[in-house]
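Table S7 (text form). Paired inputs.
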Amino acid sequence: VQLQASGGGLVQAGGSLRPSCAASGRILSSYIMAWFRRAPGKEREFVAFISGSGGSTSYADSVKGRFTIFRDNARNTVYLEMNNLKPEDTAVYYCAAKTPGMTRYDRWGQGTQVTVSS
C-alpha cells in the first residue's frame, strides 16, 4: 500500500486542521493505521492509532481530548481531526500503516507540515 498525506498548514493557536492520508494499492481496511509526528529537534512520537474496522482507537496523552482519528474505508482514507491546536503541536505529521502480520508500522507517507502560531 502507498500512503499520501495532505491537509497540513499554518493555523493560529486554538484553531483546527484535518490532515488526511489516502492509500492506494491495497484495501485500507486490512491495515491498522496511525499518525506520528516529528517536531523540530525531537524524536518522532506516536499521536494516534485506529484499528482496521475503526472500532478501536488510542491517543497520546498530549493530544487526548483534542485530536480524533477516524477512517473512511470506502474512500481508502484516514483522517486526523485536530482541534484546539497549540504551538507545541507544530511538527511534520506522518501517517503509517501496519501490514497484517507485521509487528511494526512498515508503510509510511511522506509527511505533512502542521505549524501552529501563538
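Next pair, protein 2 of 2.
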Amino acid sequence: QVQLVESGGGLVQAGDSLRPSCVASGRTFSSYAANWFRQAPGKERELLAAITTQGGSAYYAGSVKGRFTISRDNAKSTVYLQMNSLKPEDTAVYYCAADPGGSSRYRIWGQGTQVTVSI
C-alpha cells in the first residue's frame, strides 16, 4: 500500500500560481488513479481534479476548470496540481488521494498542505 506526502502549499497573493505535489511511497503508484481534493474551514471536502493511472484522462470540477491542471509522473511516483490565477476563495487545505486500481473503495489520503490566497 502506498503512502502519500503532499508539499508545495503556501501563502500567495490573488492571481499568483502554485504547484503542490504529492509523492507516493511504494512501487505500485502507476496502478493507482490519483485525485486532488480541498477543504476550506466550515465546508465539505471537494473533489477538484482526478487523473487516470497512466495520465491519459483527467477530470476537473467546474470551480477550477481552466485554472488548475492535474498531472503525474509515474517514474517519480508523483502527482502535481498546477494552480493558476488563484483567488482568495481557493484558500483551503489541499489533499492528495490515490485509488488502487482506479477504485475509490480503498482510497488512500495524504496529510494535506495548506494553501492561503490573500487579496
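The mean pLDDT is 96.
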